[in-house]
Structure formats: C-alpha cells, structure tokens
Amino acid sequence: MNLAYDYPLLNAFWTMLWFFLWIMWFFLLFKVIVDIFRDDSLHGWAKAGWLVFVVLLPFLGVFVYVVARGKDMGRRERKHMTEQRTAFDAYVKEAAGGPGPNSADQLAKLSELRTRGDITQEEFQRAKDMVLAGGTPSEHPRPGTPSA
Fold first, then answer.
1. Are 129 and 136 in contact (CB under 8 A)?
2. Mean pLDDT of the region 60-87
3. Residue 58: closest CA among 29, 18, 78
4. pTM of the entire structure?
5. Nearest CA-CA partner of 138 in 114, 117, 98, 109
6. How far is 91 from 37, CA to CA, in rounded Å?
7. Rounded distance, CA 70 to CA 86, Å?
8. Residue 43 and residue 36: Cα distance in Å, rounded?
C-alpha cells in the first residue's frame, strides 16, 4: 500500500489550509481575550460578560466582539505599543548613562561653530554662558529665528 496514492496532493493542500485556518482562529481568539482584559473602558461585569460569551460560544462570541468593538481594538493595540515603546526608550536612556553631552563637548562644538562663522561672537558668548550655567544652548532659540 503506497501512501502517495492514498493521500493526493490536493488533500495535502486542503489539510495545510485547514491547519492554517485553525492556527489563525486561535490567534484571533487569544487576541480578543487579551483585548477584553486590556480595555479600560469596560468594567468588571462587562469584561466577565464578554469573556463568558467568547469562551462558551467562541465562534459567535468572537464574531460579535470583532463587529461590535473591532474598531477600538486597533486603537488599544496602538496605544499599548506606544506605551511599550516609550517605556523601552526611557529604559534605554537610563541604562545608557548620563543625560547628554558634557560641558566640554558643548563648548568645543560652539567654538567650532564660531570658527566657521555660523554664529557671531555675541551668540557664542551667550551660549557659552548658558553651558557654564548648566543649560544647553539648544534649549533656547537663536535671536531672530522663529520658535517651533
């Protein structure tokens, strides 16, 4: 008995398709369950109701949830990702060390700008005073330039 003749290529295709759809179904089911818990606008009983609906009648529950609340699912996902990115960036900045370039680096850059003629002696002196006072020149716009 040769297995290649008992299970044709089309049946293998259909099996892979059903397997893929089954995996996608579980992905969607878990996505909906996570969204139920992530939603701050839903309170205890509403979350419990949606969860019971999705668990007891999964196909109907997920379909109704996606139709009724699917638009906000994307917004909550983007908000969650933005919060994660912000927290990660803050962690990286904290772990990387100091707040930025030190005074010597800033003074060297200012001196280079003055040497090239990009800033005047007066602007150099004003920026130098700010650096020595503990500020950064980039915190204050140059005179005559519009602020953003």
1. no
2. 88
3. 29
4. 0.51
5. 109
6. 25
7. 25
8. 10
**CA 143 to chain CA centroid, nearest Å:** 37
Please report, as a single letter, which amino acid is at residue 121.
Answer: Q
**Both structure tokens of 49:** 């109701």
Q: What DSSP element (H or E) covers 43?
A: none
Q: Which residue bears the tokens 């519009």?
A: 146
Contact 107, 128 (CB under 8 A): yes
Direct distance between the N- and C-terminal alpha carbons of the chain, in angstroms, rounded to an integer: 78
Q: Which helix (H) or strand (E) holds 105?
A: helix 103-116
Phi/psi region, residue 129 (left: phi>0; alpha: psi -120 to 50; beta: rest), is alpha
Q: How far apart are CA 10 and CA 99, in angstroms?
A: 62
Under the banding of pLDDT at 50, 70 and 90, the label for residue 3 is low
Place of tokens 């280079």: 112
